[in-house]
Amino acid sequence: KPVLVLRGVERSYGALTVLKGVDFTLNAGEMVGLIAPSGAGKSTLLHMAGLLDSPTAGEIEIDGQASAKLNDAGRTELRRRTIGFVYQFHQLLPEFSALENVVLPQMIGGVGRKAAAARATELLSIVGLKERLHHRPGKLSGGEQQRVAIVRAIANQPKLLLADEPTGNLDPGTAEGVFAELLRLVRTTGLAALIATHNLDLARRMDRVVTLRDGAVVPA
Ligand code: ADP
Ligand code: ADP
């Protein structure tokens, strides 16, 4: 089942055309690697897939909904309901514990505190952070912080996970551990994941890899 579909997506900034007709489908349960040389338009593509930016031509569908048919409020609602995002630098709230960082987005999504805390505890335990629930991000290692960020991104049960270099800031051993957890979560939840990475070893272990070249997606 397609979760993310891009059809002939173009994006120009004035005279500069960054994306020149991107066609791409991501299905539920799939983990796809996105490889892009710097400046190729990776961030632009992820922003569009995350409904934070609109194409200058072409169509984007998330979970069967055409983004062009929605207004800004509709896109925001669709994004909040269906998309989780992981960044290279985790962007956790420094004043809050690991647990609270995973509880808050759920409460903003309308889940009650108790249920949110139960789910946060379960997810953090799955990624090996059962003993770290009450630590603030600053007291966690880089790999632990990124595990919290991943769990936070999926706490609201999104259908699509977009990750921009989720292990880019980690040493190879830690990156390996975080990637393994991410892969396990995707496998157990049936989430669709698009993972931008420079790490070809990790990319090879995903279901597919696509490369962004000359403004279009080519199979690797
Ligand atoms: P990547 O993430 O692959 O490094 P980006 O998507 O950030 O690439 O940018 C691709 C190209 O588009 C670059 O040449 C960049 O300078 C240009 N670009 C990105 N955002 C803007 C913007 N808001 N205005 C003008 N040019 C932009
Ligand atoms: P806010 O809604 O607080 O103004 P943003 O507009 O930056 O914040 O982001 C809205 C939501 O989308 C946030 O939950 C944020 O984590 C998420 N988000 C940010 N960047 C992306 C992206 N590229 N793709 C998908 N979701 C994103």
UniProtKB/TrEMBL annotation:
Any single Gene Ontology cellular-component annotation: membrane protein complex
GO MF, any single term: ATP hydrolysis activity
Keyword field contains Phosphoprotein: no
Superkingdom assignment: Bacteria
InterPro entries found in the cross-reference section: AAA+_ATPase, ABC_transporter-like_ATP-bd, ABC_transporter-like_CS, ABC_transpr_LolD-like, MacB-like_ATP-bd, P-loop_NTPase
Alphabetical UniProt keywords: ATP-binding, Cell inner membrane, Cell membrane, Membrane, Nucleotide-binding, Transport
Pfam families: ABC_tran
Coiled coil residues, start to end: none
Residue intervals of the ABC transporter domain: 4-220
GO biological process: lipoprotein localization to outer membrane; protein localization to outer membrane
UniProt record similarity statement: Belongs to the ABC transporter superfamily. Macrolide exporter (TC 3.A.1.122) family.
Record-given protein name: ABC transporter
Organism whose genome encodes this protein: Elstera cyanobacteriorum
